[in-house]
């Protein structure tokens, strides 16, 4: 089962986005409906499991994991005593997932992965700051992770709050206003109501993905084919992850 793609347009830096989208299209071409070919990558994690070592194989693993999740056939991999003991000596996650803090969208469950599989970074609305950027860079530059997924989701409260504030609502208290300011560029004022919020959720994912691709160290990895940055949305109504082109 392949991850469907939302192909509506969005802003970004043209040159860097061209690199990102080219890599994303190449990954999509390797996705085949049904059960994918087992990736032939070095072993890591639980017995019999392999660690995806390329952007394409990492994306396939997340795709098939989400298919298990939404069909209620979760395996809950890499949770055994043996795996826990093995991980004492080090970690080798195969994907960074930048997701929202929303309690309904835990990446390890959504993609049916276990201990040591994902480096998860979460902030409300997938908003970037220095701590988030540093955490993602650590995963890519120090741990050699080949895939970053920016995972937005349906009914995102942070995006909805940003839209309400943009429409004249009261300023949010404390540090929450920072979130609103960061999400603000994703708002399409030609839309109204729920459509404006939903479109802003998707546009925000694109903007965050573009910002990550613009980071010099990450851009160099993308250009070399060692890294892909992919945008996606999790739909609460059917539990499916859909790619955002």
From TrEMBL:
Residues 32-54 are annotated as: Disordered. InterPro entries: Carbonic_anhydrase, Carbonic_anhydrase_sf, TAT_signal. The lineage of its organism: Bacteria, Bacillati, Actinomycetota, Actinomycetes, Kitasatosporales. This is Carbonic anhydrase. It comes from Streptomyces virginiae. It comes from the Bacteria. PROSITE patterns: TAT. Pfam families: Pro_CA. Signal peptide: none annotated. Catalyzes the reversible hydration of carbon dioxide to form bicarbonate. Belongs to the beta-class carbonic anhydrase family.
């Amino acid at each position: 089962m392949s991850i469907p793609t939302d192909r509506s347009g969005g802003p970004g830096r043209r040159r860097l986005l061209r690199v990102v989208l080219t890599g994303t299209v190449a990954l999509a071409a390797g996705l085949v409906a049904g059960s994918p070919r087992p990736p032939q990558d070095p072993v890591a994690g639980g017995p019999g499991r392999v660690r995806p070592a390329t952007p394409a194989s990492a994306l396939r693993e997340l795709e098939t994991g989400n298919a298990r999740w939404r069909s209620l056939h979760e395996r809950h991999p890499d949770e055994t005593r043996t795996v826990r003991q093995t991980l004492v000596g080090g970690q080798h996650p195969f994907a960074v997932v930048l997701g929202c803090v929303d309690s309904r969208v835990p990446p390890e469950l959504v993609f049916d992965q276990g201990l040591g599989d994902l480096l998860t970074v979460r902030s409300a609305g997938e908003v970037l700051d220095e701590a988030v950027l540093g955490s993602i860079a650590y995963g890519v530059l120090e741990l050699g992770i080949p895939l970053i997924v920016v995972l937005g989701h349906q009914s995102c409260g942070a995006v909805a709050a940003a839209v309400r504030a943009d429409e004249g609502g009261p300023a949010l208290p404390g540090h929450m206003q920072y979130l609103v300011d960061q999400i603000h560029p994703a708002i399409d004022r030609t839309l109204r109501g729920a459509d404006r919020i939903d479109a802003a959720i998707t546009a925000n994912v694109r903007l965050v993905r573009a910002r990550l691709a613009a980071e010099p160290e990450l851009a160099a990895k993308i250009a070399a084919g060692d890294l892909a940055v992919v945008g996606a949305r999790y739909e609460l109504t059917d539990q499916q992850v859909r790619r955002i082109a």
